[in-house]
Amino acid sequence: MAAVLVGQFHARDAEGRVYSVHEFQESTPSADGLTGSAPVTTYKLAIGDRVKKLDDNQFLLVQSDVTIVREPDTYVGKLPETNVAS
Question: pTM of the entire structure?
C-alpha cells in the first residue's frame, strides 16, 4: 500500500490550539499489479497522530478524542495584477 501526501491544512480545537493536518491518498494494488482499489483518503497530524474525518470541516483526534475544526482558506480569489510602466 502506498500513501501520497495530497494536501495540508490547519485546524483548531475548542481551546484555540492549532494543529497541522496532512491529507493522504492510499491505494492498494491488486494481486495482478494492473488495477487496484479506489484510493482511500486518510488524515494525520504532522506529528503522526491519527485523525478521523467527521464531516467537511470537523475532524477527531483519535488518541485524545478531541474535535478540531478546519481553518477557512485565506485565499479569497484572484491575486491583484501588478502594473508595470514601460
Answer: 0.71
pLDDT per residue, tens digit, the chain (86 aa), is 578 888 899 999 999 999 999 999 987 766 666 666 778 899 999 899 999 999 989 999 999 999 999 998 743 334 345 455 54
For cell 488518541, the residue is 63
Tell me which DSSP letter residue 8 carries: E
Cell 475548542, residue located: 14
Amino acid letter for position 6:
V
| The C-alpha cell that represents 45 in the structure block | 497530524
Q: What is the DSSP string of 17-85?
A: -EEEEEEEEEE-B-TTSS-BPPPEEEEEETTS-EEEE-SSSEEEETTTTEEEEEPPPS--SPPPPPP--
User: For the chain, how big is the Rg over CA atoms in Å?
Assistant: 18
Please report how many Cα atoms fall inside a 13 Å half-sphere around the Cα of residue 73, on the Cβ side. Answer: 5
